């Protein structure tokens, strides 16, 4: 029997579900997908930049999966504890809240595919202030994310924006803010976003990278798009930075990125209204607001002083270290784009061990084995992360939890493109299916060896019961989903919203016009 | 543990959107996996691209962006002599190949390679992926 609950409704969740269906074409299994938003597709809808519509073509395949009669979608359902703090209460005020314990009794298998929804911050910069915000807030704004604050970035007062971090999200944000809004109108950009972009006074974007051109996390496609921006030019990168990088041995991708940087932008600086730059080997150490009018001088719209430490990269470790030289950068707004991390769930309860047990606070994602089986420690003396917070438990001190899996960014961290998420998901789907087939084969004993490796003391974590039941009613649902004060969105409900968004878009000659709350 | 293994091809609702030629009249392609195992020998018409051909014949090659050069999921490896007769990949294709798994010097995106007479008889290798686990062709029917 397989009745799988998937927590999360993004690309990883859909790719796993689709692969399981295609591997087990005629099997009477069920897959129920629980998604916190009322809409499916996660980062494909709420992450992919609007001017990359072709990336969203994968949705056609996800729709095929959703049409399988063995599939059900439960949108607007938050799986986890009822929120405690006011901020979370407000964000989840219209969600159905489904505690993990209520979910477990109804399923034989569980997949955690909750991605990496939280931005990582810079230790020396405010997390959120009137002058500093995470890039994710801007992505949420232009994708009209219902879990976001919907506060537009202050583009009317920000001629100079400094983006901290050099990944594709940094370039997406820079590109959307620098592209003439008339070119974005045909895409899936909400009207209220276009209005703000039309009023923008932005003249320059500084992308600040802690390390050099060979360490940048962005990819060639995104860099090339920056180089081809119609009304912007790149300030050339200092020759010594490029020459130094060219001396190193490079991968194909690195050398193609370096060539793009050497060639520079299509427009020469001075010929355009707007400019952008990548400032390599710089790390923020302080952000000050200039209070005194006389100190603002001739640039009252650059009220911030961003102090940057110069860095160099250790050629062996590729780590950045500060050189004790500093530069001050006058700017109007700081945007941090430093990666993302998984949710510190207490899915440890599933592993009947301790709070937050499967979540590695150092790695910022859930530990799994190579096949995506969720891991838990075999001994209380060896938690996932030791007390120093520096060392993660080695694989030999972890063991898989029966019939509980994790996939996608929740299990590998926020890295890679859609293709890597797909490969990961197919691998996890194949593990789930092969574990299941093995369990159908009575000759295979499911007993796991719990012996601690020699030399390790400590109390064995007791096997109470397997967290997942082996027999359940295939049609039963958690009470919270059956009866609730808030709506649960089926896939058909979503398709109605989807069609309405496309219809509203057609009226305006664009891809779609998103709705806030259907 | 003995693993019961399975190779069940994807049930694509939409096939490749191309016409199959009359048997014996088309250009020939052979699809193989990384280990050199034969997957299928098929025929296609001039102008058809490798991704569409793979889909038409239910060969397990992904095309997440549906041929718009926005992903690397239809990455294929070609024999050197066939690779050499093709026009060079453009910047957009190279940008995506940068991110392909198991990239080789004769890698291309399947969606960008259109069949010509010169490519008749080509062997297309699907790169190493996760499809190694299910190998023996047994079919699951639990109903």
Structure write-up:
The complex is a heterodimer of chains A (518) and B (143). Chain A has 518 residues and is α/β, with parallel strands linked by helices. Chain A folds into two domains: 2-117 and 341-440 and 466-504, NAD(P)-binding Rossmann-like Domain (Rossmann fold); 121-338, FAD/NAD(P)-binding domain, CATH 3.50.50.60. Helix content of chain A is 29%, strand content 20%. Chain A is built from 17 helices and 21 strands. Chain A has helices spanning 11-23, 42-46, 58-66, 86-91, 100-104, 135-142, 168-178, 181-184, 191-198, 220-227, 239-246, 252-263, 293-296, 409-412, 418-440, 479-482, 491-507, and strands at residues 3-7, 30-35, 71-75, 77-79, 96-98, 109-112, 118-119, 132-134, 160-164, 204-208, 232-234, 274-279, 282-289, 304-313, 320-331, 333-336, 340-341, 359-360, 365-366, 373-377, 398-406. Chain A has a six-stranded mixed beta sheet with strand order 3-2-1-6-21-20, covered by helices on one side. The longest helix of chain A is centred in the C-terminal third of the chain and has 23 residues, at 418-440. Chain A is globular and about 70 Å long. Helices cover 14% and strands 16% of the residues of chain B. With 143 residues, chain B is of the alpha+beta class. The radius of gyration of chain B is 15 Å and the shape is globular. Chain B has three helices and five strands. Chain B has one domain (2-142): Roll (Ubiquitin-like (UB roll)), CATH 3.10.20.30. In chain B, the strands form two sheets. Chain B has a three-stranded mixed beta sheet with strand order 2-1-5, with no helix packed on it. Chain B has a two-stranded antiparallel sheet with strand order 3-4. The A-B interface holds A 22-29, 52, 54-55, 57-58, 60-61, 64, 219-221, 224, 252-253, 256, 417-420, 422-423, 426-427, 430, 433-434, 437-438, 441, 444 and B 1-6, 8-11, 13, 62, 64-66, 68-73, 91-92, 94-96, 98-101, 103, 129-131, 133-134, 140-143.
């Amino acid at each position: 029997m397989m009745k799988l609950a998937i927590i999360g409704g993004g690309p990883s969740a859909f790719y796993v579900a689709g692969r399981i269906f295609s591997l087990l074409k005629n099997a009477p299994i069920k897959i129920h997908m629980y998604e916190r938003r009322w809409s499916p597709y996660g980062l494909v809808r709420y992450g992919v930049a609007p001017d990359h519509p072709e990336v969203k073509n994968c949705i056609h395949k996800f729709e095929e999966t959703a049409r399988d009669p063995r599939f059900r979608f439960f949108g607007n359902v938050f799986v986890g504890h009822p929120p405690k703090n006011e901020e979370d209460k407000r964000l989840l005020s219209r969600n159905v809240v489904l505690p993990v314990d209520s979910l477990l009794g109804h399923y034989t298998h569980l997949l955690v595919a909750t991605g990496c929804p939280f931005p990582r911050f810079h230790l020396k910069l405010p997390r959120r202030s009137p002058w500093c915000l995470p890039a994710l807030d801007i992505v949420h704004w232009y994708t009209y994310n219902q879990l976001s604050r919907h506060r537009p970035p202050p583009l009317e007062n920000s001629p100079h924006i400094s983006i901290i971090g050099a990944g594709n999200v940094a370039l997406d944000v820079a590109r959307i803010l620098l592209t003439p809004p008339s070119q974005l109108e045909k895409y899936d950009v909400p009207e209220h976003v276009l209005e703000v972009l039309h009023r923008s006074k932005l003249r320059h974007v500084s992308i600040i990278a802690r390390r050099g051109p060979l360490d940048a996390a962005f990819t060639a496609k995104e860099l090339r798009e920056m180089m081809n921006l119609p009304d912007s030019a790149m300030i050339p990168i200092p020759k010594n930075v490029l020459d130094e990088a060219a001396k190193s041995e490079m991968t194909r991708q690195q050398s193609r990125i370096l060539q793009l940087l050497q060639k520079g932008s299509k427009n020469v600086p001075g010929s355009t209204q707007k400019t952008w730059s990548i400032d390599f080997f710089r790390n923020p150490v302080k952000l000050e607001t200039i209070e005194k009018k006389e100190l603002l001088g001739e640039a009252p719209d650059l009220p911030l002083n961003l102090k940057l430490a110069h860095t160099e990269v250790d050629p062996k470790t590729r780590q950045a270290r500060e050189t004790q030289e500093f530069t001050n950068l006058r700017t109007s707004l700081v945007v941090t784009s430093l990666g993302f991390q998984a949710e510190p769930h207490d899915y440890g309860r599933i592993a009947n061990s301790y709070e937050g047990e499967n979540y590695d606070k150092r790695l910022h994602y859930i530990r799994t084995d190579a096949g995506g089986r969720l891991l838990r420690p075999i001994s209380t003396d060896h938690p996932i992360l030791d007390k120093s917070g520096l060392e993660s438990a080695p694989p030999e001190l972890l063991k898989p939890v029966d019939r509980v899996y994790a996939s996608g960014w929740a299990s590998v961290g926020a890295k890679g493109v859609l293709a890597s998420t797909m490969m990961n998901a197919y691998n996890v789907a194949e593990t789930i299916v092969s574990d299941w087939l093995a369990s159908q084969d009575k000759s295979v004993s499911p007993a796991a060896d719990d012996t601690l490796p020699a030399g390790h003391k400590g109390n064995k974590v007791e096997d109470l019961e397997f967290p997942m039941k082996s027999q359940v009613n295939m049609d039963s649902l958690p009470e919270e989903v059956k009866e609730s004060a808030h709506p649960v969105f089926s896939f058909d409900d979503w398709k109605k919203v989807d069609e309405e968004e496309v219809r509203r878009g057609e009226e305006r000659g664009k891809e779609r016009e998103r709705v806030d709350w259907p | 543990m003995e693993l019961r293994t399975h190779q069940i091809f994807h049930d694509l609702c939409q096939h490749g959107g191309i016409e199959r030629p009359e048997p014996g009249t088309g250009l020939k392609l052979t699809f193989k996996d990384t280990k050199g195992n034969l997957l299928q020998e098929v025929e296609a018409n001039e102008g058809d691209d490798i991704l569409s051909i793979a889909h038409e014949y239910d060969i397990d090659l992904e095309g997440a962006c549906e041929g718009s050069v926005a992903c690397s999921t239809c990455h294929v490896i070609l024999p050197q002599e066939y690779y050499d007769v093709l026009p060079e990949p453009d910047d957009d294709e190279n940008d995506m190949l940068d991110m392909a798994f198991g990239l080789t010097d004769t890698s291309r995106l399947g969606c960008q390679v259109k069949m010509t007479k010169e490519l008749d008889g080509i062997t297309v290798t699907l790169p190493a992926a996760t499809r190694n686990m299910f190998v023996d062709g047994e079919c699951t029917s639990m109903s």
